[in-house]
Design brief:
single chain, about 100 residues, mainly alpha, Alpha-Beta Plaits, two-stranded parallel sheet
Length: about 100
């Protein structure tokens, strides 16, 4: 699903929730704020979620009850996420784990 399609789908959900008050006395109105980010090849999970979170907070700071698209990641951020020379090597296996019997 493209980012624009996701925006339309989530915005429809937002509108439906706002149109149906909760509770017997219609005392509770539920609204939705959403941030939508499309994952880009080579983008790390943390960066992807961070972009969605930033879009969510932009929606909340703009008056709530709205959906916002995240900005595309900077090419440098994607390059840094996939460049092997910048990745830390995994920690060595602890000696007691290497000799442990599997369950």
């Amino acid at each position: 699903m493209e980012q624009a399609q996701a925006l339309v789908a989530v915005d429809r959900l937002r509108e439906r929730m706002a149109a149906h008050p909760m509770g017997d006395q219609a005392a509770l109105t539920v609204t939705i704020s959403a941030g939508i980010a499309q994952w880009q090849p080579g983008e790390g999970l943390e960066h992807w979620l961070e972009r969605a979170d930033q879009a969510l907070y932009a929606a909340k700071h703009s008056g709530r009850n709205q959906c916002r698209l995240a900005e595309a990641p900077a090419p440098e951020a994607v390059r840094m996420a996939v460049q092997p020379s910048l990745a830390a090597s995994p920690p060595p296996v602890a000696p007691f784990l290497a000799s442990a019997n599997p369950l």
